[in-house]
Amino acid sequence: MNTLPKLQFIDLAAQQRRLRGELDAAIDAVLDQGAYIMGPEVKAFEREVADFCGAKHAIGCANGTDALQLALMALGIGKGDAIFVPSFTFAATAEIAPFVGAVPVFVDSLDGTFNMSPDSLERAIAHVRTLGLRPRAIIPVDLFGLPADMAAIDAIAARENLSVICDSAQGFGGSIDGRSTGTFGHVTTTSFFPAKPLGCYGDGGALFTDDSELAAVIDSLRVHGKGSDKYDNVRIGMNSRLDTLQAAILRVKLSVYREEIDARNAIAARYSEHLGNVVTVPHVPAGYRSVWAQYTIRLPRHCSRPDIQTKLSAQGIPTAVYYPLPLHLQTAYRDYPGDPAGLPVCEAMATDVLSLPMHPYLDTDSQQRIIEALHAAVAE
Ligand SMILES: *Cc1c(COP(=O)(O)O)cnc(C)c1O
Asked: If pLDDT is split at 50, 70 and 90, which confidence band does 59 have?
């Protein structure tokens, strides 16, 4: 039997080995100084991460879900408002609409990129008007790290007078024609959950915007709707700050993030080169750059996904299914509206997607093992 070591799906330990000295020093500095809540590392990280993507403002918060909720609250979204979201995404993208009293409306995806379909979006907007809902905002998701089709979505948003909240929990640092995620739409949200491309060692999140007024409102909302200080409350807010320790850790990780994005792209290119003849590999449109939060293939019709996963697992190769069921078919979401033409693309994707190990420290030999094992599994 196979005696090769088990591979990691995302190897956070390899990154930690590389950065451990700097991480220890950064954590020690926070402990020495004792400003655990909104310490100087938070401000410093906000400045650095805003500069990284070219946004005017970055506002740290507790996690990527809160970031989305803060964006909706800051834009005054609530009862009677319709929020257009892809159905093929992590639940948080849709979850925050009912949180603020709004209605999530499900939109189909594009076959090649896994991202929101502009045509489906237009059908969904026209449909909710007939239901008496007010179209209010679009939340495109940079799924698996690839920026959404922002040119098409921005054009629809401008024509329909909708706000655009980019959910870049998986896509921070990606770009379209050199313009980074974090600078599209009215506001962008991201997550620093450990497994995201830029992750901390706990929960964390941020919002990005060029709108100084909106940034000030978000800054207030994350600290209980504070006014001149936290005991002066000018609006209903929440408690959603980025921890000082996490900010200190993120500053270290951000310092190598550009290099890691390059490494992720080299690994993705190698996968696509060697797998494109046996499975459907992800499509990256010209001018787009992904950060490859996941490398997700689509299996040919003749393959049983559980069989392929079992065969790879037997050789120490972990895989994952993102996502096994689109949101519009989930118990909690199936009564909300969606594209009246149906969502056939995301329903098909849910049956045939498979994500392979992807992280910046995946070495060539390990990757070769994955490629060969997948070739053999698909051929059987
Ligand atoms: C991870 C994720 C979120 C939520 O982030 P948390 O930090 O876990 O709250 C939101 N949207 C998408 C697309 C995600 O992948």
From this structure: very high
Q: What is the pLDDT of residues 75-92, one digit of tens each?
A: 999 999 999 999 999 999
How far, in Å, is the centroid of ligand 1 from the Cα of 91?
Answer: 8
Q: How far is the CA of 89 from the centre of ligand 1 (A)?
A: 9
170 with 181: CB under 8 angstroms? no
What is the C-alpha radius of gyration for the chain, rounded to an integer number of angstroms?
A: 21
Q: How confident is the model at residue 56 (pLDDT cuts 50, 70, 90)?
A: very high
- CA angle centred on 91, ends 303 and 258, rounded to 5°: 80
Asked if 173 contacts 146 with a C-beta cutoff of 8 angstroms, the reply is no
**Quick one: which of 364, 30, 64, 36 has its CA closest to 198?**
64
For residue 234, CA distances in Å to 219, 221, 224, 227 come to 12, 9, 9, 5
- Closest ligand 1 atom to the C-alpha of 92? 10
Protein residue whose Cα sits closest to atom 1 of ligand 1: 169
- Between the CA of 191 and the centroid of ligand 1 the distance, in Å, is 6
Asked if 108 and 344 count as a contact pair (C-beta separation under 8 A), the reply is yes
| Contact by Cβ (8 Å): 88, 143 | yes
CA of 64 to the centre of ligand 1 (A): 5
For β-strands 175-176 and 205-209, DSSP reports them as unpaired
Q: What angle do CA 47, 360, 240 make, to 5 degrees?
A: 40
Instruction: For residue 208, list its beta bridge partners.
Output: 58, 188
The predicted pLDDT at position 201 comes to 98
Measuring from each residue's beta carbon to the nearest atom of ligand 1, which residues come in under 6 Å?
Answer: 63-65, 89-90, 92-93, 141, 167, 169-170, 191, 193, 203, 205
User: Does residue 323 have a cis peptide bond before it, meaning omega lies within 30 degrees of 0?
Assistant: yes
Q: Whose CA is nearest to atom 2 of ligand 1?
A: 169
For the CA of 93, the nearest atom of ligand 1: 11
Mutate to test the pocket of ligand 1, among 99, 166, 170 (most ligand atoms within 8 A of CB): 170
The full DSSP string for 64-125 is HHHHHHHHHHHTT--TTEEEEEESSS-THHHHHHHHTT-EEEEE-B-TTT-SBPHHHHHHHH
Atom number in ligand 1 closest to CA 193: 7
